[in-house]
């Protein structure tokens, strides 16, 4: 027991001495750092002043008291200043045009000499014309038997694209014939109640070329700048009825079973009932305050682009206008009327 207690006392004295020594070394390092920093700050900064090369040889008068002046001259520099010089701009190499090089005798002689040396090279020399031709053939798709689409014609793939023939989503009754003529479709009677119901309906439309009279009321100055369109005049729509119909232009020989390449879409007209702020409310039943309230609208569609897609470029070809209504189920028995369907130019 006595030995263990003496050992513990010895280890405690040693630990105290080590801790005291560490503290002294720490304070000594702080003092040395402080002394070194003070010595560095007390040193004088020695450097040559920045010379004003454009001013040191000039003297300027300085105003003193009692209307006296004294010339103030900058001190002469201890060394000769080095004046700034712009870097030398090398001449840009520009390839001269062929009509100038043809008259340059020196250039023509060098070209002929180089051509002669190229022809004198051995056949197995990689710089010879023969080896160059062989390399060119390895990069030729025709030589490899592979043919790719020319990049200059890449855009024509989608510009001239025509969809595959398909059937429309609507059909006429079982008595509809597969072939028809323009006489099978009714003409729009002006100032009459031409009816649009819940099934698709077609109207025949006569076309004519534009005249100077069509320029009146437009912003164009030449007849060729006019764009062709159709207008449905005085479309009478119940104010509280949701109405939507799609409009197509067709060849006169087209019918409801014809392929899509004989018909082209021109636009959609949509009428929301009064008080409806979004399409979500259209599906619900809307209370009708007065079913005798109607709106009369003129509905216009541009047909020039659609006619060009169909390949109709002259004004002597008459067309038919197909109207495909999209009514709600509880409005299937209702109809809308319009007074006239005619061609117009904008």
UniProtKB/TrEMBL annotation:
A Pfam entry, by short name: PPO1_KFDV
Region: Disordered, residue numbers: 165-186
Biased composition (Polar residues): 172-182
GO MF entries: catechol oxidase activity
Family matches, as SUPFAM superfamilies: Di-copper centre-containing domain
InterPro entries: Di-copper_centre_dom_sf, Polyphenol_oxidase_C, Tyrosinase/Hemocyanin
Domain Polyphenol oxidase C-terminal: 227-328
Name by which UniProt lists this protein: Polyphenol oxidase C-terminal domain-containing protein
Protein's organism: Marchantia polymorpha subsp. ruderalis
């Amino acid at each position: 027991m006595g030995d263990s207690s003496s050992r513990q006392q010895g280890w405690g004295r040693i630990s105290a001495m080590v801790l005291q020594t560490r503290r002294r070394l720490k304070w000594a390092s702080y003092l040395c750092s402080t002394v070194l920093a003070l010595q560095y700050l007390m040193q004088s900064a020695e450097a040559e002043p920045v010379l004003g090369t454009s001013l040191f040889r000039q003297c300027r008068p300085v105003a003193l008291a009692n209307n006296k002046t004294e010339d103030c001259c900058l001190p002469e520099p201890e060394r000769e200043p080095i004046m700034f010089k712009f870097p030398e701009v090398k001449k840009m190499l520009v390839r001269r045009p062929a009509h100038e090089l043809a008259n340059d005798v020196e250039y023509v002689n060098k070209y002929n000499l180089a051509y002669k040396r190229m022809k004198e090279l051995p056949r197995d020399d990689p710089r010879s014309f023969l080896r160059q031709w062989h390399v060119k053939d390895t990069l030729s798709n025709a030589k490899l038997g592979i043919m790719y689409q020319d990049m200059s014609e890449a855009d024509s793939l989608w510009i001239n694209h025509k969809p595959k023939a398909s059937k429309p989503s609507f059909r006429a009754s079982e008595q509809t014939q597969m072939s028809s003529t323009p006489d099978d479709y009714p003409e729009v009677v002006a100032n009459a109640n031409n009816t649009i119901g819940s099934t698709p309906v077609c109207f025949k439309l006569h076309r004519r070329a534009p005249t100077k009279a069509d320029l009146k009321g437009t912003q164009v100055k030449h007849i060729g700048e006019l764009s062709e369109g159709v207008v449905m005049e005085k479309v009478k729509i119940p104010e509280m009825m949701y109405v939507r119909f799609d409009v197509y232009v067709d060849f006169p020989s087209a019918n409801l079973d014809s392929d899509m390449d004989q018909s082209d879409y021109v636009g959609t007209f949509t009428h929301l009932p009064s008080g409806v702020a979004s399409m979500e409310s259209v599906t619900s039943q809307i209370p009708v305050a007065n079913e005798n309230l109607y709106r009369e609208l003129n509905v216009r569609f541009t047909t020039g682009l659609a006619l060009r897609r169909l390949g109709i470029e002259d004004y002597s070809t008459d067309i038919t206008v197909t109207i495909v209504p999209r009514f709600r189920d509880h409005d299937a028995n209702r109809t809308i009327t319009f007074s006239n369907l005619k061609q117009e130019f904008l």
